[in-house]
Amino acid sequence: MLRRPRRNRKSQVIRNMVEETRLSVNDFIFPMFLIDGINQKIEVASMPGIFRYSLDLMLEEMAACIDLGIMGFDIFPAYPESKKDKYATESHNPDTFYLKAIHKIKSTFPEIVLMTDVAMDPYSSDGHDGLVENGKILNDETLEILAKMALAQARAGADILGPSDMMDGRVGFIRSMLDDHGFTNVSIMSYTAKYASAFYGPFRDALDSAPKMGDKKTYQMDPANYNEALIEADLDTEEGADFLMVKPALAYLDVIRLLKDNSNLPIAAYNVSGEYSMIKAAAQKGWIDGERAMLESLLSIKRAGANVILSYFAKEYASFVK
Ligand code: PBG
User: Fold this and answer.
1) Would you please indicate which residues are annotated as catalytic (active-site) residues?
2) Cβ–Cβ contacts within 10 Å for residue 100, how many?
3) Which amino acid positions bind Mg(2+), per UniProt (predicted)?
4) ipTM value for the complex
5) CB 115 within 8 A of CB 159
6) Cβ neighbours of residue 8 closer than 8 Å, sequence gap 6 or more
7) In this structure, are residues 29 and 113 in contact, taking their beta carbons and an 8 Å threshold?
8) Residue 43 annotated as binding?
């Protein structure tokens, strides 16, 4: 045998030398859940180790993450039913706790990259990402609401907006709204290939944001589809997106690679709630080594081509490397 691949695996030092993919804390954005009030920290039942925080405790938690080197955060608000309506009106109320919190977080930690979520679901009495009429999700009417929400988030100080709604044309619509109001420096990380996935279940528990009727299949992508992700990627690129995201990550590693090979934009991947919970649940039962499973799955996302990883494991990963 002339070729013996095992020679390059014979010691840890050699393995380190030939290692092709390396994770870093710089790769991560940590998604966090915000609730109104003070001194609140409530664990999400289906996501062990992940909490809904009131702003005061969220600031403390962010300071701890920053100490560990995490510099990117994505904040999702959880609203009580009483604040929700058909039009997601609360989403662009300048006095709403989410927007005030964004402002406070950015003034407390100006050096971080703060991402906000653009979609109607946390504020919608229908629990959908778009405006519902007669059981249908209206696309173009939703764009107007999303653009108002996006502008309000930019005014509050967000660095990156994440349209997670999957309406057609929303990246361009939001981009022109931002530019018309002088927010040319606010970035858009588009949820480009966001699939209608079972893996969002724990997130919907965290935000009480499950759809009241129907499902999200008329706007989120069919898990069977691959080429269609390129259509979405081309549109988002033309419409001015700064990052293209694939979501979920682990069941869609092929799609991450597809976008990486077909775009010069940075590719983000969202390692979603269900992907986190599966590892946690199996580890709690002692069925797998949770730490190794975390590292292996994060590594696979990067190896597939992601430049940015949104993951509930971000802090745990950062603590592990420290
Ligand atoms: C909705 C939104 C969802 C997630 C992020 N934004 C859920 C959904 O589409 O129903 C899921 C994130 C996760 O599961 O971690 N705009």
Assistant:
1) 194, 247
2) 14
3) 232
4) 0.96
5) yes
6) 14, 15, 18
7) yes
8) no
Q: For residue 3, report the distance from its CA to the centre of ligand 1, in Å.
A: 47
Nearest to 46 by CA among 196, 210, 211: 210
Please state whether the predicted TM-score (pTM) of the whole model is above 0.90: yes
Neighbours of 95 (CB within 10 A): 7
Distance 204 CA to ligand 1 centre (A): 7
List pLDDT tens digits, range 10-68.
999 999 999 999 999 999 999 999 999 999 999 999 999 999 999 999 999 999 999 99
Parallel, antiparallel or unpaired: strands 41-43 and 160-163:
unpaired
Using the atom order of ligand 1, give the atom closest to the CA of residue 120.
16
Instruction: List pLDDT tens digits, range 151-160.
Output: 999 999 999 9
Name the fold adopted by 23-321.
TIM Barrel (3.20.20)
- Tokens coding 110: 């100006």
Partners of residue 136 on adjacent β-strands: 133
Q: How far apart are CA 289 and CA 173, in angstroms?
A: 45
Q: Is 91 helix (H, G, I), strand (E, B) or coil?
A: helix
- Residue 201 Cβ < 6 Å to ligand 1: no
Task: Assess whether the C-beta atom of 219 lies below 6 angstroms from ligand 1.
Answer: no
In angstroms, rounded to a whole number, what is the distance separating the alpha carbons of residues 294 and 28?
14
Q: Domain spans of the chain? A: 23-321
d(CA 143, CA 131): 9
* Atom 10 in ligand 1: residue holding the nearest Cα: 200
Q: Is the beta carbon of 311 within 6 A of some atom in ligand 1?
A: no
Q: Per residue in 163-212, pLDDT tens?
A: 999 999 999 999 999 999 999 999 999 999 999 999 999 999 888 889 99
| CB-based contacts of 121, cutoff 8 Å, min separation 6 | 127, 128, 129, 165, 207, 209, 211
Residue 266, token pair as written in the block: 């940075």
Q: Could you give the CA distance from residue 47 to residue 205 in angstroms, rounded to a whole number?
A: 9
